[in-house]
Amino acid sequence: MCESIYRPPVATIRKALILGLVLSLFLAPCLVTPAAAQGSPLPAVELDCGSDPIMDVHPTSDAEASVICTVTNPTSASEEISISEVEWDGVLVEMSLSEDSFTLGAGEEDTFEIRFIGQTKIPATVQHSFEIEAKVESWNGLPYGQLPEDGFWVVNTSHIGDLKIQSYGMVELLLSDVTTRYMDTNDEVEFSFQVTNKGNCR
Known about the structure:
Oligomer: single chain
Order of helices and strands: HHEEEEEEEEEEEE
Number of helices: 2
């Protein structure tokens, strides 16, 4: 007597295959190696700058200030990144970048300096806003012109800050008569003088 062989319906087999496929899609990210999981699969750039600069404009100073920034490639591929000035309204102060382009491998970072050079005796009330932008020019060899410029693909980032002028005090005293005077005990002499505020604040 022959034993009957059980064959599950085709519909049951199809459901099992679909279930297996769905489970594999959910479990696949768990099987990715830690090294590969660290980098973003999309173009991106990170920009981190120090605190706002304060410029010393005392007559004996160099009237210079700077900010150190770190640019980072957080992705899993190499990138070419440009740094550019977006906004600068300084008149008495010039702003410049120590470097304006970087080639960074996956996860790499580098630093650059935002430099400010001004004049001495600038009023303490002066304040200049500035903005710089970090932009991905190419990612994994793909030029930026072939990357979407809006939506969730946006890969640019910026830093906004303010340049402040440090206050200082300085007084100038002028005497109307600086000749030598000979005085006896209890003698009094009158003279006039002028005091001028040579500082950059009240």
